[in-house]
Write a structure and sequence with these properties.
- The structure holds two protein chains of two kinds.
- Chain A is mostly helical.
- Chain A contains twelve helices and no strands.
- In chain A, helix 1 packs antiparallel against helix 12, helix 10 packs parallel to helix 11 and helix 11 packs antiparallel against helix 12.
- Chain B is mainly α.
- In chain B, about 70% of the residues lie in helices and about 0% in strands.
- Chain B has eleven helices and no strands.
- In chain B, helix 3 packs antiparallel against helix 4, helix 7 runs antiparallel to helix 8 and helix 9 runs parallel beside helix 10.
- The chains are: A mainly alpha, B mainly alpha.
């Protein structure tokens, strides 16, 4: 059990990071020009009314005290009220989590399958035409703007071939899968090149190690060596790479959700920016940062479970 | 008596042939630089002049890449847009590069409390999703190119700081640093004149792929309406303009996207090529 002790200790190490995240979000919201009370009450508000609001929300207190209030509210799940939705921010944000989470999970699944296939082909035909073609594809893939690719996908698969809905989210599970297929594929395209390159490199490195030579000398079929040993052992660095790139993917959802009108966190963030609903923007930023921290924790956990040598 | 043969001076890049990706990438990037510089000469018409009698025309002889919903020539907008997108790549790299390299050098060389404090700052910055933090900063400062550069400078330094710090941790133990210290050179001189030139290459290589990223980010911001504002010609805005006409006028969005891809491939080739050279040198 010694090697799982970090399940308890790692969250403690994360506390300073969480403090940092809350501080950055607090500072960002406070840098927005304009008095929140004046925004709330309108331009014709009296000085007394503004002072009353200041006192009510603690805006007349020193900034450090305000940060303390902010933290105390966060811990109690109070993110304030949305001026557009006229409801607590927490509820507004919470109902957007599932679409974004589904989108990311589907995109990760698509890119994992696609990268595994491409990297295996490239590594076993190293230096050949197919390998070069896959390398070229990954170079192009790195420079594909997600918002443009999404539009091209809509042009070809939704409008041209009529295979997928143009936008939206759907009602039932299968309906949602159908709606999220194109957005997830768009997101996956930005991840596949990174994962493929990395997996190809570790497959090649792994296949030159001594145990592979030993297995081959023993007469183990090449296919069995590849899938039974080489591929399994190459997966570990790839899994941590998924963790490193999750932040990038979450960023991608902001754009992709806007293109496909998926009612997720990213779309909420963009629409709230234009509506000047800053408490919602602040909450979404916080939730997405927490998502990155949680993912990295899970990746650490997965690494420790899969590789007994790793002590985190 | 035979002539004394003078051995050729050993070249630093000896026995390393230039990968084809370097000239190919340089060619592509220089092509776009030329387009940007020569924009007033090569653009067939004014990029923001509207002609409402000539809207949504498909590509043809009069307008090679067609016209948009305001009757603006797509090719001219694409050519003028090159200026802004190249600039986003250049300045988007420059500020994070300078800040990150300095922080990495200071953290790596000083060690101790300074290093620990800077690395905690780094931990917090990377725990935000990169693009989300950029958007949050731009939302705070107000849409525009200036906000984009400030946001990138505040967030993008982390990769450079990490790369340079890692190099410094190794190099500060090396003999030439000890020699410089014995000669009584000052800290600043050792850090910036002796270690930095040896530590900078990984950061330079990374800056090429970072340029790709910044161009993608900048055009994404413009696409969302948080970057360059219309009617200025910029590739991300052009794609956004065409979004409402994808069923009828595909050319408005298609061509600027291809332009971004080609420019990105140029920088990616350069990054690949330099990474290969660097790997071969070590």
């Amino acid at each position: 059990m010694q090697r799982y002790r970090f399940v308890l200790t790692r969250p403690l190490q994360l506390i300073p990071v969480l403090f940092g995240i809350s501080l950055v979000t607090f500072v960002l919201t406070h840098m927005i020009p304009g008095d929140p009370a004046r925004i709330l009450l309108g331009i014709r508000a009296t000085a007394e009314a503004i002072a009353a609001i200041h006192e009510k929300f603690g805006l007349d207190k020193p900034i450090a005290v305000q940060y303390f209030y902010f933290l105390a509210n966060l811990v109690q799940g109070d993110f304030g009220r949305s001026i557009i939705y006229r409801a607590p921010v927490l509820g507004v944000v919470a109902e957007r989590i599932l679409p974004t989470l589904s989108l990311i999970l589907l995109a990760v699944a698509i890119s994992a399958i696609l990268s595994a296939i491409l990297a295996s082909i490239a590594a076993t035909r190293r230096g050949g035409v197919t390998d070069q073609a896959i390398r070229l594809f990954s170079t192009i893939g790195l420079g594909l703007p997600a918002f443009w690719l999404g539009i091209v996908f809509i042009m070809v698969f939704s409008i041209g071939l009529g295979l997928f809905p143009v936008s939206g989210y759907g009602e039932t599970f299968l309906d949602r899968l159908h709606h999220l297929a194109l957005p997830a594929a768009t997101l996956a395209v930005s991840l596949v090149p990174v994962i493929t390159r990395n997996l190809r490199a570790s497959l090649i490195a792994e296949s030159t190690s001594d145990y592979v030579t030993a297995a081959r000398a023993k007469g183990v079929p090449a296919r069995a060596i590849f899938f039974g040993h080489v591929f399994r052992n190459s997966l570990l660095p790839t899994i941590s790479l998924f963790g490193v790139n999750i932040g990038w993917m979450i960023g991608g959802t902001v754009v992709v959700e806007t293109v496909f009108s998926v009612p997720g966190l990213g779309q909420l963030m963009v629409s709230s920016i234009f509506a000047r609903d800053y408490l919602v923007v602040q909450a979404v930023t916080l939730v997405l940062a927490l998502g990155v921290v949680a993912t990295n924790f899970l990746v650490d956990l997965a690494t420790a479970v899969l590789d007994p040598r790793v002590t985190v | 008596m035979t002539a004394i043969e003078i051995p050729a001076a050993p070249s630093r890049w000896r026995s390393v042939s230039l990968p084809w990706t370097v000239p190919a990438g340089a060619g592509i990037v220089l092509f776009w630089v030329a387009v940007a510089v020569l924009a007033p000469l090569v653009a067939p018409s004014d990029p923001i002049a509207q002609d409402l009698s000539d809207t949504l025309k498909p590509p043809g002889w009069a307008h090679w890449l067609g016209t948009d919903n305001f009757g603006r020539d797509v090719l001219s907008r694409l050519i003028w847009g090159t200026r802004i997108d190249l600039m986003m790549g250049f300045f988007g790299v420059l500020f994070p590069f300078v800040i990150g390299t300095t922080i990495g050098a200071v953290a790596g060389y000083s060690g101790g409390f300074v290093d620990a404090a800077l690395m905690r700052l780094l931990d917090v910055t990377i725990s935000f999703p990169f693009f989300v933090l950029i958007i949050a900063i731009v939302a705070t400062l107000g849409p525009g190119l200036g906000s984009f550069y400030i946001a990138l400078a505040l967030v993008g330094w982390v990769s450079y700081a990490r790369l340079v710090r890692a190099q410094f941790l190794v190099l500060k133990q090396s003999d030439f640093v000890l020699a410089a210290r014995c000669l009584g050179f000052g800290r600043a001189r050792i850090v910036f004149k002796h270690i930095l030139p040896n530590a900078i290459m990984p950061a330079v290589v990374f800056s090429m792929s970072d340029a790709v990223l910044d161009i993608l980010l900048g055009s994404s911001l413009s696409f969302l309406g948080l970057g360059i504002q219309p009617p200025t010609a910029e590739w991300g805005i052009m794609i956004a303009d065409g979004k409402n006409f994808i069923g009828t006028a595909w050319w408005i969005s298609l061509f600027p996207g291809i332009a971004i891809i080609i420019l990105a491939i140029g920088f990616s080739f350069l990054a690949d090529g330099f990474a290969e050279l660097l790997g071969a040198k070590d």
